[in-house]
Amino acid sequence: MRITLLITLFAISSIFSQTEDERQMKAIYDMALTEGKAYDWLNYLSNQIGGRLSGSVQAQQAVEYTQNQLDSLGLDRVWLQPVMVPKWVRGTPEFAYIETKPGLTTNVPICALGGSVATPDVGIKANVIEVNGIEDLEKLGSEKIKGKIVFYNRPMDPTEISTFSAYSGCVNQRYSGAAEAGKYGAIGIIVRSMNLRLDDYPHTGSMSYGDTPVQNRIPAAAISTKGADLLSTTLQLNPEINFYFKQNCKQFDDVESYNVIGEIKGSTYPNEIMVVGGHLDSWDLGDGSHDDGAGVVQSMDVLRLIKASGYQPQRTIRVVLFMNEENGLRGGNKYAEVAKSKNENHVFALESDAGGFTPRGFSFDCSDEDFAQVEGWKKLFEPYLIHMFIKGGSGADIGPLKDEGLVLAGLRPDSQRYFDHHHAENDTFEHVNKRELELGAATMTSLIYLVDKYGFGVQKKVKG
Amino acid sequence: MRITLLITLFAISSIFSQTEDERQMKAIYDMALTEGKAYDWLNYLSNQIGGRLSGSVQAQQAVEYTQNQLDSLGLDRVWLQPVMVPKWVRGTPEFAYIETKPGLTTNVPICALGGSVATPDVGIKANVIEVNGIEDLEKLGSEKIKGKIVFYNRPMDPTEISTFSAYSGCVNQRYSGAAEAGKYGAIGIIVRSMNLRLDDYPHTGSMSYGDTPVQNRIPAAAISTKGADLLSTTLQLNPEINFYFKQNCKQFDDVESYNVIGEIKGSTYPNEIMVVGGHLDSWDLGDGSHDDGAGVVQSMDVLRLIKASGYQPQRTIRVVLFMNEENGLRGGNKYAEVAKSKNENHVFALESDAGGFTPRGFSFDCSDEDFAQVEGWKKLFEPYLIHMFIKGGSGADIGPLKDEGLVLAGLRPDSQRYFDHHHAENDTFEHVNKRELELGAATMTSLIYLVDKYGFGVQKKVKG
After folding, report:
1. Residues of chain A under the 50 pLDDT cut
2. What is the pLDDT of residue B456?
3. Which of A180, A279, A405, B321 is 20–30 Å from A372 (CA)?
4. Which of A53, A54, A91, A101 is nearest to A219 (CA)?
5. CATH number for the domain formed by residue range(s) A2-85+254-463
6. ipTM, 2 dp
7. Does A269 contact chain B (CB < 8 Å)?
8. How far is Cα B59 from Cα A338, in angstroms, rounded to an integer?
């Protein structure tokens, strides 16, 4: 009943200002598509800087570049927020082969998982035991695993329409596979890349040894999907074959890095903060154009588009370019820690971290009342083919801000091609389409505009 | 009132069979995504055959290949429908340059428009007059146009969310530009490529001289978007520069070709025909993967998926692979002509000819009553993120079938990247994503299933 009343009240206020909202959103989309800056910024991040793994020279270059660009936008304030981040380095390229008989070998493409230990200098060579997931380990037991390389080969489920659901269904093999296999005496693990295509790119990503003591940690690598199919077929023909791999990666001490932050002060409620962001770090294999260069440049363009459209926000809009989402989430945690220590009032946070593809909508992590309000805006987005307003997750970096009353949201682009590129050498600039990227920026800007104008807080005050 | 009643009746029948429809559609999507054939067929069409311009050896190879593949599916009948098609040949590659002073030239990428005449052997060189569309010709008049090359430079409007709308807004420059400019004494035309990106690919496409006598026809070429920008800038600096181009294309006599047709006979209403199709011919510059290899292989997979799902259609489902959509529409016209001469009862026709990208929905050319019925199925498509059910055009090839009572539909994939590739050298296999293609095939199959099961005709009988 209360929800119904709120919806009704909102519907009335909507009708009165419909034309103004339509006009403002059209102006935002038109500007994004004709004079958007996101693509140029992404070109620089991707092609002049490249992969930006936390603690790398490139990550620092990205901090400086985006700070300079935000400075040039005439925001009210731009600053760096220091944060200590892990520094893991891949070292010389990895090398692997399947040995069907002594001297008869076939090379396969692998890459170390982020955070993995190196192999010994001479590499490791051992028999392989293929499993369809971590659950299989217990059934096999130490007897069948000890001294071997465990090969996790559960693929992403192609029948999931959302490829993120397919990813969720097998990423624990990558994240926890080494820690779990180590308990049964495995000496290394190889994980099928989280990729729905058959190709030659190994896909890296974060992994954790949990509480495994340092001396018991075993090296972990991803193998390309074609390599995984070859290995699996070879094992079916002869379970006694050997697999060899060598990797040279290393974990260094934490180093100082930064979240890059800029803001436009709100005219009426300066203490009510809306965050829009993506993560500035990326994996090292590609240039991180989709993950998450796209989210970074879209978020930057949100503030630029708001200013350029002449709209004067009532609330403070803050762009946050988070450091270290990929292998630590230190930036997201630090931002939330500082916000809480300063007792800042965050009312909304929006993250773009699902690729620079055609936007389809948003997912929201919020109350039913707030979601009902959001759904009231759906009609305004229809001309832009934005149709997906769902309850669900938002984004990793803004997650630590989560608090009762705060609305969290994530941009939801079309997901079909995302895992073709995710964490792999082919996450590169030429796979981002300019218009798709710009439509995402315009869609985010429109949501920020609507939240600023109607404010979730207003409803709460009405209720209060 | 009548519409409301129909909707209500349909809604009730929907509720009763919802679970079965949901199950059937899930089976269709699962099969398309795990054992779809569309991508393999496209691989062959694109990489073993390539561009399939009407009258070419490749077009004939495509006829034979698809006929063989349809034969292998165990359909009730597969046949070729003869049709005479135009044969236009590009000849040796085109060549063009901007001459800022005698001897100082910059090459620019061009291609002849389909159907254009050649230049003289030595090419043509002349001053250039830039216009923003055909409307400008009258203002300029013969005095300023005579003896010059007309340069049509109106770009696609980037603020149109549907890129097809942007295409509609300037394609008349390509289609009628030569005929119109010729009336004012122009000696050739250059058209900015119908492409929203800035790149180096010229995009060909059909053009017509209308009733221009043969001896008065002037050569017509497309220039890449980057080439167009360079030419425009150069003209601003010095309107007296020359443009040179040479092309060697030729129109031959019509040759015999074929529509490729296969069908599954309906169990209950074999005389009610539902057509699903795309066009087998393509332009010659790329391999025609998006335009319209994708539509061809999706349409073929519709019949395969229907059979593989175990569903026994009540009505006849016919796949038609139309010849010569690009430069004549002879196949579409022939199919309709034969259908009418045989007094065949077509109840539905669905075309896929907008690229192999993530499907978003369908557009329908039909009565309000039939559209209301279609909208009742919307909910069934939601799990597959198919959200766009609009009234509008369907497809060029099925257009000639149009008749009162016949429902025409077109698959509507995401359009953002389509004109990056359309009619250009980069319309190639690697730009088609397997999942996106398969989702399109499943979406089409699901619609065919629903039309077969509920039949627009049933409503008409109820009304009668």
Report:
1. 1-12, 459, 461-464
2. 86
3. A279
4. A91
5. 3.40.630.10
6. 0.93
7. no
8. 66
